[in-house]
């Protein structure tokens, strides 16, 4: 008789143990975009850019993992094919240089994206997420890492992401990183959510399968874990297209520079500059 409660306790503990193991090893449903440059020797796991997405349909909370080479002044991803009207996750080193600041931003009209105070984001630290919210400059893990949730973030002042029955399998997305290399432009360190950004010199577009990133409720929602397999902290492409980033510079040197330095970035304001870039590139390729 006396042993029964004890056995019940053991049973309860083992259930607790099992469920703990389950939550730390199974990733929320996710779509994962990765970009790896040709020589790929900069960035976490040698990847130049990673963006992984999970969305809780019940709360519209958006969970993200993002990483880019540590030398870049900022990194960003937005919903939409251009910056205008896009909701963007922009991250940069915090004032102490080793943490990360996440600034949710929206660009209206032709102005550069500004801090969007109506959506609140929190950084996330959790088991299974390596180097969360750190800027690491050591060795092959050298990168800026972001793990975060933005609450109620599928609708903003001038746009909306469909996460219902007609969620897109090819949602247009943009990504960019701020100038890397040397000089003041690569030294952004700030806790200010409205920190000024130096415009990028190149940017990329890709598409994401939103349907693959949806959780019905908070029991399965969260920051996507690395999906590179057992004991592998790498994120691998899943539910997303590949991308060929474009550059704002003269195409040949820029592409060369991109491969050599991984300093690819976007243009602010995108509207006018995107057109300029495309025109210039199409003129060049026409010439060739
Ligand atoms: C990254 O690339 C370098 C050189 O190509 C290689 O030595 C290193 O093992 C790679 N690191 C990872 C984590 O794959
Ligand atoms: C740097 O700042 C971040 C917050 O931005 C904080 O989480 C981290 O602990 C700080 N690191 C050090 C070494 O103080
Ligand atoms: C979510 O945001 C929308 C505006 O985009 C607002 O109308 C709604 O009340 C918010 N929901 C919650 C739970 O805060
Ligand atoms: C981790 O997974 C990635 C992608 O599948 C692979 O390229 C890499 O070699 C793996 N790394 C290790 C250490 O197994
Ligand atoms: C993963 O690592 C753990 C601890 O190092 C080890 O026990 C386990 O066998 C590894 N699993 C695989 C599939 O390599």
UniProtKB/TrEMBL annotation:
DOMON domain sequence ranges: 74-178
Organism classification: Eukaryota, Fungi, Dikarya, Ascomycota, Pezizomycotina
Keywords assigned: Membrane, Signal, Transmembrane, Transmembrane helix
Official protein name in the record: DOMON domain-containing protein
Span of the signal peptide: 1-21
SMART domains, per the entry: DoH
Pfam families the UniProt entry points to: CDH-cyt
SUPFAM superfamilies the record matches: CBD9-like
Keyword Membrane belongs to the record: yes
Region feature Disordered, mapped onto this chain: 219-249
InterPro entries: Cellobiose_DH-like_cyt (IPR015920), DOMON_domain (IPR005018)
Membrane-spanning segments: 254-275
Organism: Rachicladosporium monterosium
Biased composition (Polar residues): 229-245
